[in-house]
Every structure is written in C-alpha cells, then in structure tokens.
Amino acid sequence: MNESNEPTRRARVFISCGQTKDSDELETAQKIRERLQELGFDPYIAVEEQTLSGLKENIFRQLRVAEYFVFVDFKRERLVPRGKIGFVWSPKLQHRGSLFSHQELALASYLNLPLLAFQERGVKRDDGILRFLQANATAFTDRHLLPNVIADEIQRRAWTPHTRNELVLETHQGWGVVTSMCFVGEKRPCKTLAAVTAFAQVLCFLSSLRSQ
Question: What is the pLDDT along the chain (212 residues), one digit of tens a residue?
C-alpha cells in the first residue's frame, strides 16, 4: 500500500457554543475554529437549526462522526432567586448558560465523546448535565483569549488531529471510508442517528433558544 496516496483524515471536533445575535459570540466561535484548524483538526461549529430535518442532517450527523467535543457555555440572563421580588444586585448572582449547548453536551456524553468544557465566569456551576459529568469545566472571563485557552488544553490532553474513528480501505477503485462499523468490546456505542432521535423533539424546541 502506498501510504503517500492515503487521503488526509483530520480528526473532527464538534464545537458547541452560543451564538447570540448582536454579541461577539459568533466571532469568538469562528476564532476557536481557526485556532483548532491551526492545530490540524477539522472543526465544526454548531449553528442554529429550526427544523427536525435540519437537526438530523447537521447537528446529529456531525455529532455522530465527531472524534472530539468542545463545550463553551456563555452567560445568558441572570437567575433570580426563587421568592425574590424586584431586582437587587449582588456579586453572588448567577447566570444561566446556553440551553441548546447543554443539550448538545448531553448527546456528546451519551456518545462517549472525549470532551472539554469551558464556562464563562458568572454561569451557574455544575448546572444541568454538568453535575453528572466529571468534566471539570474551565472558567474563563476574557472571550478574546478563549481560543488559545482551548488550544492549550487540547494539547495538554494530547488530543491527536491525525486519526478518525473510521476505517479507510484501499481498493482497485481508490480509497473508501467505512463509518458505520461497530467493534466488539468498543467503549463508545454505535454512533447512529437512531441513537439520538429520542432527543429530537426537545432539541427542535430548544433550537429557537440558541439566540437568546
């Protein structure tokens, strides 16, 4: 086999983060993608989907084939303590995170994707599924520095950009990729769309909340 003819197979990274309109979140997401490309990865930024078919064809598909998952939890509105009337500012006040990103995190956890979690300071810690994961989310304050913070952590974890969870076969007709195989003893479950369709209706509803 002539290894020099083997197609480039960069590891795919699913980037889950909010993209609120009239904010710098989309710009930050783009810079994260560019930084991961510099490391040799093939990053995908989750975008807002308004239909079930869009979720299946984009979000679900990208999660199914991803090798790694990066979760970025941006601040949303303040959480007002139950029973409080009016608003009194306090440094202890917390914010909720991105609902849609938390749902993507749940799917990534179900698929046993290696993941890194980052939370903007002020977001309620260990909220949602994070309380059940040993993700040890890294807190950040400066969004402009976040791409390098993520890149440093990826390198510290020794994520490799040069392998994929698929087989590449060389035939007389050229190269072919097998992506739907499951292996005996494999720790990760078979990553098929059927494995995540139970979340479809919830995600379809929450997709409209990504811009909030």
Answer: 445 555 578 999 999 987 777 788 889 999 999 999 999 999 999 775 556 676 677 888 899 999 999 999 988 777 766 545 555 445 566 877 777 888 889 899 999 999 999 999 888 877 777 777 766 889 999 999 999 999 999 999 999 999 888 765 555 555 445 444 443 334 454 444 444 444 444 444 444 444 44
The tally of domains found in the chain comes to: 1
Could you give the CA distance from residue 155 to residue 140 in angstroms, rounded to a whole number?
A: 18
CATH of the domain at 21: 3.40.50.2300
Collect all residues with Cβ–Cβ distance below 8 Å to 176 and sequence separation of at least 6: 168, 169, 170
Residue 37 lies in a domain: yes
Residue of 201, 197, 194, 204 whose CA lies nearest to 51: 204
- Give the residue numbers spanning the domain of 168: 10-81+94-209
